[in-house]
Fold DYW domain-containing protein.
Amino acid sequence: MVVNSYCQSELFDDALELFEEMKRANIEADKFVLSGILSACARAGNLDCGKAIHDYIIQKELVIDAHLRCALVTMYASCGCMDMAQQLYDQMKPKNVVVSTAMVSGYSRLGRVKDARLIFDQMVEKDLVSWSAMISGYAESDQPQEALRLFKELQILGIRPDQVTMLSVISACANLGVLDKAKWIHVYADKNGFGGSLRINNALIDMYAKCGSLERARNVFGKMTSRNVISWTGMINAFAIHGDANNALRYFQKMKEARVEPNGVTFVGVLYACSHAGLVEDGRKIFASMINEHNITPKHEHYGCMVDLLGRANLLREAVEIVETMPFAPNVVIWGSLMSACQIHGETELGEFTAKRVLELEPDHDGALVLLSNIYAKERKWQNVGDLRQLMKERGISKERGCSRIELNNEVHEFLVADRNHKQAYEIYEKLNEVVCRLKLDGYAPNTGCVLVDLEEEEKREVVLWHSEKLALCYGLINGAKGSCIRIVKNLRVCEDCHTFLKLVSKVYRREIIVRDRTRFHHYRDGVCSCRDYW
Ligand SMILES: [Zn+2]
Ligand SMILES: [Zn+2]
């Protein structure tokens, strides 16, 4: 009984020690004590200890009754050891809601949503925790649409979500990046009494930022009665990814005035803002203050921001110095930013060197392969170009496929590169032709520099024109209300050609266009992008 009270009060180490003592004193632990320790292991995620208890049960030939089996399954599932959990779970008859939910959570946390769904669908009885586990599984496995679909089902059943469920759904909306859905969940949260919650408000800030509405993120922040480091960091990040460095720095200042201590994540946001706005001096000072004033040891991402900041500003020597003196080996992101800086500033020698470092760490890195083959082609090293192409063919470089989403009239439409599956495909390609013709009058010429595959120039031009964001844009032009803002979410970086294309469309067609790419936002208006072509 002493052991159990230790377990319940989460004095986990003490419970274990006591168990060891009982073993030494030859006192048999009964199933209540054992399941108590098992549930402590589950909470602490301590697989080794859980296994030791399981071994003890087998060794002492104790009867594994329903109660103990339930504790074992829950322990294995919580520790992410799903093979053992599944094996024990399969032998359970009947299965109760607690243990099945533990299985759903276990699979969800590992991103194995299909396995989780299988169990979820077989459950006769489900409670809010089971629904929450399944919804968060989808939200975190990049299947936000499925998370929202389940949430709708939950509402139809009349089950009231709790804060955990709400946080998952809000993060699903953030990943989806669709503003109308974001507004809807915000209204829902307010109506259901979550409006005062710090964690919910922090999540809403992040969601609105990712859905392209800085305005609404600011509104949520402004109405909060208390704010913590996550709230401030959320706002700073929001400004940073929208290219508003001035406000990012202003809020950073205000945060310090409010005596909220910034953390490592805050500094990533501030430095990112500096690097994308070319604020070299501010960036240097902030990086130094992070170490000297705030006692935070910089990690890869902070060094990455500094290399990016200096590289973009053509201070390549200084950027290299950082890479050479940082206290750990540079990763692919850091070599990658140095490489892009060389590309922007036409530094072929250093460019070649960095591209090779990138390829050592990530042999399929298409950016590095394209850069190298362009450098070799420029220097007329045809043998090297040939070798590289051969290499790419052999490895079967599989680029992640570009995919763009647009929402209109409450429906989300998805387009892949050269997609012809949409029911309006014919009209979309007609529209694309028309747009290209009009833009050509404004001096547009397809830029095929980013196309990797070994194609004829004519084919390359087609590939570039069929990029998913152009298809989504044309869909928006056909179906959206005249003059309305077109919002697109893309999974990859926007290529140079699409960037120019979108700028021109915003001018020629007088439309505001907002595109979220893998890391940031582009607001296009009157032929200009908010990133000032610096992305
Ligand atoms: Zn493109
Ligand atoms: Zn841009």
